[in-house]
Amino acid sequence: MNTLNKTLLALAIGLSFQAQAAEAMKMPPDLPPLGQDKAIPAPQITKKTLANGLQVWVLPRKGLPRVDFVLALRGAGHGADPASHPGAAKLLAGLMNEGTAQRDSKAIAEAAQGMGGSVGAGASNDGITVYANALSAHAPAMTALLAEVARQPAFPEGEVKLAQANALQALKVASAQPGFRAEKALNEAIYGDHPYGRTQETEASIQAVTPEWLRSEHAKRFRPDRALLVITGRLSADQALKLAQAHFGDWKNQGSALPELAAAPTQAKPQHILLERPGSVQATLRLGRPGQAASADDQVALRLASTILGGSFSSRINMNLREEKGYTYGASAGARSFRDGGAIRGGADVRNAVTGASMEEYVKEYRRLGQEAVGADEMAMNKRFIAGSYLLATQMQAAVAQTLANNWLVGLPPEFLGQYVPKVQQVSPAQIQAVAKKYFAPEDQSWVVVGDKAQIAEQLKAYGEFKTP
Amino acid sequence: MKTKPFALLLSGLALAAAAHSAPTVERWDVPVHSKKLANGLTVLVSPDPSSPTVGLSVIYKVGMRLEPKNRTGFAHLFEHLMFQGTPKAPKGVFDKVITGGGGHNNGSTRPDFTNYVETAPVSALETMLWLEADRMTTLDFNPATLKNQQDVVKEEIRVNVQNQPYGGFMWIDIGGLAFDKWENNHDGYGSFVDLENANLEDVKAFHRDYYGPNNAVLSIAGDVTPEQGFRLAEKYFSKIAARPTPAPSDFREGLNTAERRLVQSDKLAQVPAVAAAWKLPDRGSKDQAPFAVLGELLAGGDASRFYLGLVKGKELALNMNSLYGLTGIWEYDGPSLFTVFALYKPGTTADALLAGMDEEIAKVVKDGVDDATLTRVKTQLLANWYNGLENFLGRADMLARLQTLWGDAKVVNQIPGWIQAVKSEDVQRVARTYLTVANRSVIDRKPAAMLAAPAAAASQAQQ
What we know:
The complex is a heterodimer.
Chain A: E1 4-5, H1 19-24, E2 46-49, E3 55-60, E4 66-74, H2 88-95, H3 105-114, E5 118-123, E6 127-135, H4 139-151, H5 157-175, H6 178-191, H7 203-208, H8 211-221, E7 227-233, H9 237-248, E8 272-276, E9 282-290, H10 299-310, H11 316-324, E10 328-337, E11 342-351, H12 355-371, H13 376-393, H14 397-409, H15 416-426, H16 429-439, E12 446-451, H17 453-460
Helix pairs in contact in A: 4-9, 10-16, 11-12, 12-16
Chain B: E1 15-16, E2 24-25, E3 33-36, E4 42-47, E5 53-60, H1 74-81, H2 93-100, E6 104-109, E7 114-121, H3 125-137, H4 143-162, H5 173-178, H6 182-185, H7 192-197, H8 200-210, E8 216-222, H9 226-237, E9 260-266, E10 273-279, H10 288-299, H11 305-313, E11 321-324, E12 337-343, H12 350-367, H13 371-387, H14 392-406, H15 415-420, H16 424-434, E13 440-447, H17 448-462
Parallel strand pairs in B: 4-8, 9-13
Antiparallel strand pairs in B: 1-2, 3-4, 5-7, 5-8, 6-7, 10-12, 10-13, 11-12
Helix pairs in contact in B: 1-4, 3-9, 10-13, 10-16, 11-12, 12-16
Protein name (chain B): Putative Zn-dependent peptidase
GO molecular function (chain B): metal ion binding
Signal peptide (chain B): 1-21
């Protein structure tokens, strides 16, 4: 937040280069070649399912005297939020560490601080994740605190009221950011009335929450037979399994499980939306269409296509719009995949004068990926980038635990983590072209633009009839 | 407005919860090997074979403080130009080679330094060192890339400042209010006029004056031995000649003697916010470690006094965030600020929030910190310190920062002991000395509609 960086890593992916020059670039003659690659280690996971159905995965690490826990509750996230309570999973997750049957919020915060760690929860489309970490000497005490927070949250009335009051203000804060408004409109355009399309809270949904509602949702959504506990760090598999058994072994399911979520749409009629923001000095451009579920067959090809097009600094979109044209600080594009569907999204914030010109480049780049085979150099660069990124991510134990838990939430097998890089290396240019035709066809994309209508409306005309809701 | 982060990183200590204020810490030293090349380049290597990857940081001892007075924002613009190609490696090569090596790179500009960082599988190490040495030698001083990055930087300012509610006032504008000297109080992003006036002569001069090996530190952490690291540094960097670096101006200034207040109107925001900043102890002062403990005690997360007192207890603020200038408590050389930033509720005022903070500060001044609390706060501070060193990029960069600012990267292994040694009376002393109203600068940032409302009411009353 408070640094002047060369780049922001935008849209949950990394961020450039003239596409035409990508193949033809001359390398300096005395640039040393890359050295010998070392083998990529696949994580060794010890797995056990407790009698109540809770799955426990342990990855002992030798590095740091620290332990990380990720407890993933499948189906407990925004997918389970009823239409009357959009975004409520966020409040539910946020309130988990604000009081339990034994401790108030202050006691929880101070206990975590004393262990050199933290405990808290977050919501995503497919689940709620309760996470904790501590210095490894405190592994037993942190397991106990994690279990308390996950199993016995009290949702005290005062804390709920305060969280609601603050959430209403935070919604005002967020709504002043053009990206937040664009995200909401684009979600609706992509997913329609599927729960994935309404993950943002509204004033009404914040006000509708009560302690009783939260307690009943917690009981429905937090079930050992739909949960995974990942433990990693400086402890043995044996010790970790014993701790899991001691603190989660007697956890019981209550009532029947929530129904599984229906599949999200795979097609949507493209919409063109202009959200007015008078005085805006940039147009916030976002485009998107439905994508595919994380476990779909051509997921790996789609991920590589996303990286090539708009998933790193050296991607086509960023190179074109930033490094060649100077239209933006960062432009990106790519797929996001969840358990029951996904989205293709792209976007950049550009000065008003180049709104139309920037949209034109997006259209060109999206189309080109489906029309021309990607050359060997560009394929190799992007494959190596993905492999390297995987290796770099495994430096940090918390990241490994989170990735494993997230893969599980979205329906990918644990082996996926180790198989991903080899699978990426198998993808052919023809497969890239095929997924690009299917998902990046410009005519299938909805457009959402947030900006000053007087400054940009004229430039939008070439891209459809933009409606202002 | 950071959400609570997943605790990110770590590296090596085991604390037994002791009942007194000195947590028993299993020492974890970061290995630090250093060597100075004949041309003045300081090379640091921190070996760790646990992952077949490396982190790399090249830091130049120049930042916003030393940019030319008629060229605000130049140090940052120049940082962008370091990625725009050289005579040997034209524009695009740098990023493409590092991406193709499986790596990530970035750079950032701060008041006292500019850092250039890469992290990648170790197979790309030599390639990255060649690229860093190449751009330290010279750049392709080219009008097209200058124009391109002037445009990009202007979009960066639009997206982060002009088109954003709050516009970074808590880290840009606050320095303008708190500091007296130009070096410390100008906007490091710069004015569009100054950015547009920047020319190739400026770029050449800046590279010549500040980007020589003698004004730089090269730091490598990860799957590399000291012998390998030094050999490669020698191979790629020793041919670059040292260049005279201008003596820095005297940018030091003392604590403030009267409170500074500013009310700003924000056209985009809908919720008011306040930033309160106090000038920090000098780097290396005996007050620095106690201040680190004090800052954590007051503003370090959900167990902090400000959070418990103002977000929870009095329910005045939505959140509480704290900053140490643009870096951290150990990473500044010239004057810096401890800034607390909070969004506050429509029913309250900045004054009420400040009074609540003063109340918490006064408690510390009067009572000090009890042993149990001091132990907890130190434990968290030590864990955070080691966390920041977990990944190789963070480790290499922190070592380079400490070398640049303290003249000795081995400070990395002294900081934990400094934290451990802090006593209640030290915390009392720094609270009394620095967290005074006289040393405080405050910006109250209000939605334009809120500011217009009282004015409108007043004019209606007159009619």
